[in-house]
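Protein 1 of 2
SEQ + STRUCT:
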Amino acid sequence: MGTDNSLSTEGKPIDGTNGSVKDLEQMKTYTGEGKSPSGFGARHVQTLLLFFGLTVAYALRVNLSVAIVAMVDRHAVNKDFEDFNWNEETKSIILSSFFWGYVVTQIPAGQMAQRFGPKILLLFSIGICSMLAVLTPFCAHAGDAKAVIGLRIVQGLSQGFIFPSTHTMLSRWAPASERGRLGTLSYAGAQFGTVIMLAVSGFLASSSMGWPSIFYISGAAGILWSVAWFFYGSNSPAEYRGIAPEEREFIESSFGPQDHSRRIVTPWIAIITSAPMIALTIAHMAHNWGFWTLLTEMPTYMKEVLELDIKKNALLSSLPYLVMWILSFVFSALSDFLINRQYLSRVVSRKLFNTIGLWIPMAALLGLAFVPKGGSDLAIVLLTLAVGINSATYLGFQVNHIDLAPNHAGTMMGITNCAANIMSIIAPLIVGQVITDATDPIQWRWVFYIAAGVYFSGNLIFIIFGQADIQSWNQPESPIPRTISNANETQSARNANNTTSNVNHSD
């Protein structure tokens, strides 16, 4: 997150081969450097809706992480509600089942968002997931673990459309000069939803409404968002009735001239065989392994090893994600500052922030492995460090798709997110095999060792093979393949009167 650059729109090439810059003022219009309309506009409405949409999406994704602690031990919270005899292996399967469906829809989601529009996909994605959340207690009662697993798979299938659709929305709504701010605000909803859900789940589970209320309330929030999105969400400025003409002009002109007669073809072979793309994919996979290991297993670790009650467990489980949410804005501003002031090249910045986001958490996990049973204060500090600093990867691998090929960034995100979320499936399953006694800190030590090792190797490969230059296959239709840096492309555009190199980036 945090780069003030733009994406391609509606699958059309944006390498600048279809327009020219007559003078500096025209260049500013094309690159989104024109004067921004003052006040709260339609683009801000869409950004806030995306923020709350991702808030709800992640609340629906992580609600089971805390709820399952109460679902398997009613004596820990409220004795009036049913509990289930699920062992650690069964719990791990349930927690990972969401991603079985999630990985399936990643790659086709971007193409569908282009064809049918992101509004309808987001509406059905969050709407269906929310209704299924409300049905979770009934499914658990009627069909036990198998029914919950099936429900979570379908929820994962529906949520697979969220990130490609959000990406498409931003490519149409966020002007280049505001893309870092609007993109950061939109995607910050993911951490905000995690914080809210983890923080309130413990109180809900121990209230008179019991653990089922976790699913009822998060599901109801998603349904309310879906209603608001139906009335106020819009695929593009051209479809938004209430937008001011000057705001629409400001947004659309920032994309530069578009040749609507040309449509690019995805170079699948070039993408999947590209060394920088492979390094990016591995870094994404490493991030997901550690992130989802901690997110799904932290409540159990806090209860069984740190011996915290579920109310305190939920609050402390949310703390690392609150820190992560705050630091995402800090790292975003710092990255922009370092690149814009030319203190760091783009590739050095990507590798630096990715290293901060993976190797500092690696060190924290190694320290966590030696925290003795009951040493809750030190463990909380290390867990907060491991998760919070991880937000630096948003300025590392997560924006690197756009660096390599802005025309294919959506497809590339689908590919890497699909591969990365396979790790989200495997990681909890590995924990289920390693942990036979959840109260044994020695067994948890191996969980932290594995996550630290994955973090180390994934970032090392990214450091060695990662790049931040536009690849030649970004423009398969161009007669002369090119591989030039973003910085050089921008400078060339300012020096040439016959070519616009308008390379677009986003989150």
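Protein 2 of 2
SEQ + STRUCT:
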Amino acid sequence: MSRILAGPFCTMILGDLGAEVIKIESPYGGDETRRWGPPFINGESIYFICVNRNKKSIAIDIKKPQGKELLMKLATESDVLVENFVPGKLNSLGLGYESFKSVAPHLIYCSITGFGQTGPYATRPGLDVIVASVGGLFHITGPEGGQPCKAGVAVTDLATGLYAQGAIMAALIHRMKTGNGQKIDCDLFSTQVSSLVNIGSNYLNSGVEAKRWGTAHESIVPYQAFETRDSYITIGATSNDGFKKMCKLLTIPEFCADPRFSSNEERVKNRKTLISKLSEIFLKHPTEYWLRVFDGSGLPYGPVNNMEQVFNDPQVIHKKLVVDLEHSTAGPIKVIGPAVTFSESINKVRSPPPILGEHTDAVLSEVLSCSTQEIRHLRETKTVC
């Protein structure tokens, strides 16, 4: 019972791992991302396609008594329910955790919200861009001295989906030991604040206020992207030995002898001077030249790739991270496959994203044992589609 990104991302990961995922959607348009575009492929939203593989879609009007009854029946046959409604909304419909627990005490009920179930912000809409703003991510993202920037993808949503997936797996282990289901509360705001990691810790323990550093690192120098003659390259010298190695490759041994750059602490203090000198050097040659210089050096480095370069990267191809699928209406599509591999378990793309209500009849008949007459009645009353 989730939509947009955090919940669907969580359930997609579970689906990759082998879970049978039944996506409950409204008959009146379904998941909002089905309409998010362009781009579309034969009318199908590419945004929806990216996080809804390995799922079955059943369209139910959850406001109707028969719709609620179907959900309760599904709960008795299911291990986990994931929802991301505004706090209190499902309770008002008689579909809160306690209602499900009364008929399915084994159920793990995972609720994903913007700001949590309680507190002064609980009823606020919790979109990624808003939570990233309130939770401090925008304050530390963007060019030094420039305006705050959002990340290129909704990282707070994605991190919340990962938190939810991990919490569900932990709850399943807990149920194996106790036999009890439970409610899990995940929210984007808590995820974002927890994701401040070292930046948040710097403030809490040293009173150091954060700022925007562009691609640079607050505590390590050099560790950032440098402009080359034709694009950019990212370099990280995270230790003194690494800095010496970089100086040797750049044929600037005098930098190693300079007391201003003798340690990371000194390099952080003299950041502007060092970065200015390194920037002049990197501008002398194109990125490909520098990639050859650093190849095999043991230093962390890489180009700043665009999408074409990413998906033609030999490592992406080697890892088989792009999977081809045949969609029932969009035709041939490509999705980015799972990021994790197992020596024994299965983690793979098994089926394309569903069209709205594609599996309604199958789920009703195979999972809930509804008769043909019952399904016909549910359709006639517009409880399902």
